[in-house]
Design a protein that fits this description.
mainly alpha; 8 helices
Length: 184
């Protein structure tokens, strides 16, 4: 919970990927409150009993969302998918507004790779932003499992700069540090 809050403040992309990892971890623990507490909460350093209770409740809220949304076996909570939708809307704005010139230049190499990425990810319907997040997450999982290092490096080299810049622009817009509609 504490890491998620920090990531949400600092980098929306890292936050989304972190929540996806938590979802899979909760599934691996079979949503068992005892396993969740023992594995994820009890060993949290520098926390008192009230903080551990808050952390445990946060994990259990994610469990509840996964169950409520019918995503016990797979899938991601709607909260993260809505955030990706917000990021995609920002992407669309940056593709046409003057403030997005640097973003468009960063995005250009990825745009060429998207048809191939769609084939690999086997999804023609997903918007480009969600496709990139799913590819990043798949790369993360492959890295954890210890395989496909060159494919992972290639994916990250093309997608990471785009998602990184998109997340940075999202943070700046959210904090009021940039005006998307100002003239260049």
């Amino acid at each position: 919970m504490l890491i998620a809050l920090q990531k949400r403040r600092e980098n929306i992309a890292e936050y989304i990927l972190y929540i996806w990892q938590i979802e899979d971890l909760l599934r691996a623990l079979q949503f068992s409150p005892e396993a969740i507490y023992a594995t994820l909460v009890a060993k949290t350093e520098g926390t008192d009993e009230q903080q551990r209770e808050n952390i445990f409740n946060w994990y259990m809220q994610i469990v509840e969302l996964l169950r409520k949304e019918g995503k016990e076996k797979q899938g991601h909570i709607d909260h993260t998918l809505h955030l990706i939708g917000d990021l995609h809307n920002l992407h669309l704005q940056l593709m046409k507004l003057p403030v997005g010139e640097h973003y468009r230049n960063t995005y250009a190499p990825l745009a060429v790779q998207l048809p191939h990425l769609r084939t690999i990810m086997e999804n023609e319907e997903m918007n480009d932003t969600e496709l990139c997040f799913r590819a990043l997450y798949a790369s993360l999982l492959y890295r954890i499992k210890g395989g496909g290092e060159s494919a992972i490096a290639d994916t990250l080299a093309v997608i990471s700069p785009v998602i990184g810049e998109l997340a940075a622009m999202y943070g700046k817009a959210e904090r009021g540090e940039i005006d998307l509609f100002e003239e260049a």
